[in-house]
Amino acid sequence: MYTVLEKGGVCSPKGFTASGICAGIKASGNADMALLKSEKAARCFAVFTTNKVKAAPVLYDKAALEHAHFASAVIVNSGNANACTGEKGYADAERMAVLTEEALKLTPKSVLVCSTGVIGHLMPMDKIEAGIPKLVEKLHEDASEEFGRAILTTDLALKSHAVEIKTEKGVVTIGGACKGSGMIHPNMATMLAFITTDLALPIDFFAEFRANIADSFNAITVDGDTSTNDTCIMLANGMSGIKYEDLSLSEQGEFRAALTLVMQSLAKDIVRDGEGATKLIELRIEKAESHEEALRMARFIGTSNLAKCAMFGEDPNWGRILSSAGSSGCNMVAEHTDLYFGEVKVLEGGRPVQLDEKQTAALHAVVRQREYKVTLVLNIGQASASAFTCDLSYGYVKINAEYTT
Amino acid sequence: MYTVLEKGGVCSPKGFTASGICAGIKASGNADMALLKSEKAARCFAVFTTNKVKAAPVLYDKAALEHAHFASAVIVNSGNANACTGEKGYADAERMAVLTEEALKLTPKSVLVCSTGVIGHLMPMDKIEAGIPKLVEKLHEDASEEFGRAILTTDLALKSHAVEIKTEKGVVTIGGACKGSGMIHPNMATMLAFITTDLALPIDFFAEFRANIADSFNAITVDGDTSTNDTCIMLANGMSGIKYEDLSLSEQGEFRAALTLVMQSLAKDIVRDGEGATKLIELRIEKAESHEEALRMARFIGTSNLAKCAMFGEDPNWGRILSSAGSSGCNMVAEHTDLYFGEVKVLEGGRPVQLDEKQTAALHAVVRQREYKVTLVLNIGQASASAFTCDLSYGYVKINAEYTT
Question: Which residue, among B102, B10, B113, has the nearest Cα to B58 in the 3D structure?
Fold first, then answer.
């Protein structure tokens, strides 16, 4: 049995402290450096962008994690992505890690680095170097929000969640924070996510972590682009004194469900906060041949400009959903397909349902909601999956077009 | 040596006649039925949408062409796509073909059918049946524009081109017309293209035709969606009295180049006419590992909302181009990559070039043009390819969001 913690975040699990400061990297004067620290070296799972163009901190972290699967801290800056900065950029990322290790008296390769912001600019290392001791000094246990705010770029809202699981062996906690898509020229949407837990996790839990990423951070789409800096790091420090292996099977299932909840809640926050987004739509594919195909089709529809514009226009445009599904490359048979907006069935066996006045009114009530679900039932298998997308609004174009160099 | 024909189109090659009329399918009262006829049965090459959801006329034509690779005429209607209409829709498509065959006294399966417009509505067969005899009666040799206009939906401009090739054996002509993306709810972008030539082509020229499609109609993107009705049909009636095999190798090369010109000109017209488009951008990928990878990367960048919004904003945003290329799944090495807007180099070896005042002014002059080229040089191979895209403007969102049911 688990419960959501009000105002919870990365510091909710035992043994995690954090801090956030204004180091002057952002012209706005908002907080732009953050530090997350575990009292004990924590088992570390990390997944990085698949973009062929990888930022320096991504390259550094991947190398660091090849040696050990543990980390004690993560140093983060916003305002500069340290991407397309060549060898100097890599040296700067490494220096951020080393300075943090020294300030925290940690062993080499025990600190990871994340950056987000403008690309193609060298890091203002003077500001970074001045910031690190301040971050270390300010570390405290109630800093979930401080940390969560300092990692944001043009995000409008804090994205922080935590869940507590009561087990036979005692209480286990999962916390998390993330930042989503912000576009300040010449910046790109970057997703940084940090998950913490005081449960001790075995190395092979990584497969579970990856599966959760597929259904959370990889199941959302604002505009289909993948950035140079995308990173998701999970730290499990075991300071609850409880091991995953020692939980009963049902408790293990609850922990996994709670982890999914935290990661999906963070992921949905990113979509809600997408540029110009006015709606959050869950695209649900049911009775598909496989979970992978269902997820791929859901994500494909979630990137269709036609479908996203119709969502903005509050138009229950089944034609665009069906056509996008058909062009996703995933298996489907039009004549077997049913489609629902909320609970209203608009397509049956690939043919439009003739709606009466009452049903038509219900349909329009659905698409006028800020959040609703579109369900496409393929009737060719047993698998299902969901993706989460936002609408495509004037606001999106404005934010992404207006800034001119 | 070939020359572009002013006001040329599908009727420019010998032995082709056409017509277009208002049958009352469109509420607007614009022309909505068209007929293209060859005096002699013509070798027919056809490529259809890969969408899993295929409109009735697409299913009918595919079946018809399985029996023979010849066709004598194509009957087209705009205003109703005859998609998601089930068995009745298929019977209606077949009836359109049969009635046209009877009216033209042609053998069965010698007429193809194309439809574009609203989906999910049964065809108004009374209007279709009344229209066919009128189309037959009005067939004439100077009807390229009439035909070209009658196939349009919300396209703003006629898309018609023709080229004449002088050979040792005599004159050979290629003509073409197409319609592009129009979105009237619940319609989707549908591409219909018709190519005619009076050169006799061998059956194995199909491979050449497919390759041309890849570099023309499949190299453009307005919003990345594929419709239920997309069709490209080429008719070669041999009425110039000249066979492809009888041309010299250089003349064969000229014919292929002329065909590419006609098809690319039509394809670019579609992009120029994309919803809300204010710019036509050629995305050129050079020194890639293969033509396929280069084309795939170019098309991928062409569907990036971030890149397309930046184009609308006249912002030379190299970060979005590079990041999109990196997330295309195609092979590249950031550190080897150079990027140009027009002739201005903005990236060298994956690092931003420091531009002086004069270069910066030149860069902004490039992105302010209505049409320009962005060239990404990967420096990992010898292959290259281009894709053509338009910008993502307020107009696009307006057109696709405003209509609400």
Answer: B113
CA distance B373 to chain A (A): 18
Is pLDDT above 80 for B200? yes
* pLDDT bracket for residue A291 (50, 70, 90): very high
Domains (ranges, CATH) in chain A?
2-272 (3.60.70.12), 280-401 (3.10.20.340)
Q: Which of B225, B230, B385, B227 shows the shortest CA–CA distance to B305?
A: B225
Taking the CB of residue A27, how many other CB atoms lie within 10 A of it? 9
* Mutation site for B-interface testing, chosen from A348, A400, A403 by largest number of B Cβ within 10 Å: A400
Annotation says A228 is catalytic: no
pLDDT tens-digit series, residues B218-231 = 888 766 667 888 99
Nearest to A399 by CA among A152, A227, A188: A188
Q: What is the pLDDT of residue B181?
A: 67
The neighbour count for residue A203, using CB atoms within 10 Å, is 9
3-state percent helix, strand, coil for chain A, nearest multiple of 5: 35, 30, 35
ipTM over 0.85: no
Mutation target among A48, A50, A82, A84 for the B interface, most CBs of B within 10 A: A84
Is there a contact between B292 and B194 (Cβ–Cβ < 8 Å)? no
CA separation (Å) from A248 to A43, A168, A262, A302? 21, 8, 21, 38
DSSP 8-class letter at A10: T
Give CA torsion, residues B342, B347, B349, B351, to 10 deg. Answer: 180
Q: Does A336 touch chain B (CB under 8 A)?
A: no
pTM: 0.85
A83-121: pLDDT as tens digits: 999 999 999 999 999 999 999 999 999 999 999 988 889
Token pair belonging to B387: 């894709």
> Are residues A394 and B396, on separate chains, in Cβ contact within 8 Å?
no
In the stretch 205-244 of chain A, residues with CB closer than 8 A to chain B read: 223-228
**Rounded Cα distance, A164 and A4, in Å:** 6
